[in-house]
């Protein structure tokens, strides 16, 4: 694993999450593979890019209806090379929501694990698994 | 664009914003070109390093008077090479304010775009454009 | 100082702080040298890896008793090469605490300085000095 790949992963996340936070559901979904999965452990799972786009559109509409601008913050990004040029990552994530009156609220912190794969030379998200820190597993 | 430049940009921001957060207005202003601009879209624009230093001094005094320590947090940094060795960046920014009683408050999140240029081998901020997420444009 | 070392430092911090935030006190302590020091300026100082492990265990138990999940966030990381392959870093740090009801609270921001040294080819924390922004020095 070298710094050039780390840089590429950071750019991948910057573009992916700017798409989401700017409300571009299709562009966000396109950062997943066609058969990609977005898992909110342990209760919710969305499979395929098409379904991820639909779920993201609903999320974007909900955010607009709430009158806030959400921003995602990733931190403590650990990366690990996997088979066939794939990469496993693990990081903490937070989401801020800024309202029109300037107030900032926070959604629960999460621990996220991604499996990124290379398709036609480009990194794509194959599986994202999100564990919210307010959900205590038995 | 390679990882060495990304590292250089990260170091540029680390030093720039540590200067600001430590109240060193002159050192902060010196990270801008002599003809640099700091734009708070859509209402406020400060041109030239001299004026940026003056505006920053007023900001630092206001922060001290408020009895808080501000810290800036940049996230989701996307970088793009531009002409003549210049770099365009785009990132989300947040500012925390810690009071003497230990409480932490947050200023509205922002989306920031910078044009960085190279002067005598060193990166400098030519234009910074800040868009606050609590300001909804028509 | 090159981007490969910057990447290595980022990975060091990712693993170090994921250990702490996941409650692995021993793994966290093992990121310090045997004679390492953790200094909370100006009032508290813990010396040796053994004592850091004990202090961290108490911290982890306190966090569990409070029913929250803490996550550390480092930002504006400045790095500087020192003698004998050592590295000095300086960065801002924040800690979020997510409760079971989903609420997020924040501990005071800090400015942190580390001295990292290389032991058997691996980076270890020799000294960490934390200055809380709610503590105003005379």
Write the layout of secondary structure elements.
The structure is a homotrimer of 138-residue chains.
Chain A: H1 3-21, H2 25-29, E1 32-41, E2 44-47, H3 49-66, E3 68-81, E4 87-99, E5 104-106, E6 110-119, E7 122-132
Parallel strand pairs in A: 1-7
Antiparallel strand pairs in A: 1-2, 3-4, 4-5, 4-6, 6-7
Organism (chains A, B, C): Streptomyces tateyamensis
Protein name (chains A, B, C): SnoaL-like domain-containing protein
Domain SnoaL-like (chains A, B, C): 8-123
Helix count, DSSP H or I runs of 4 or more residues of chain A: 3
Could you say which overall geometry of chain A the principal axes of the C-alpha atoms support?
A: globular
Structural class of chain A: alpha+beta
Biggest interface, CB < 8 A: A-B, 25 and 23 residues
């Amino acid at each position: 694993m070298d710094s050039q790949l780390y840089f590429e992963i950071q750019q991948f996340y910057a573009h992916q999450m700017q798409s989401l936070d700017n409300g571009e559901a299709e562009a966000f979904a396109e950062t997943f593979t066609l058969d990609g999965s977005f898992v909110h452990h342990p209760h919710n799972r969305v499979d395929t890019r098409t379904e991820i786009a639909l779920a993201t559109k609903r999320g974007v509409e909900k955010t607009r209806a709430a009158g806030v601008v959400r921003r995602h913050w990733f931190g403590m990004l650990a990366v690990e090379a996997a088979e066939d040029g794939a990469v496993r990552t693990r990081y903490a994530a937070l989401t801020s929501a800024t309202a029109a009156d300037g107030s900032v609220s926070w959604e629960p912190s999460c621990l996220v694990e991604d499996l990124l794969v290379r398709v036609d030379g480009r990194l794509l998200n194959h599986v994202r698994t999100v564990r919210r820190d307010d959900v205590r597993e038995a």
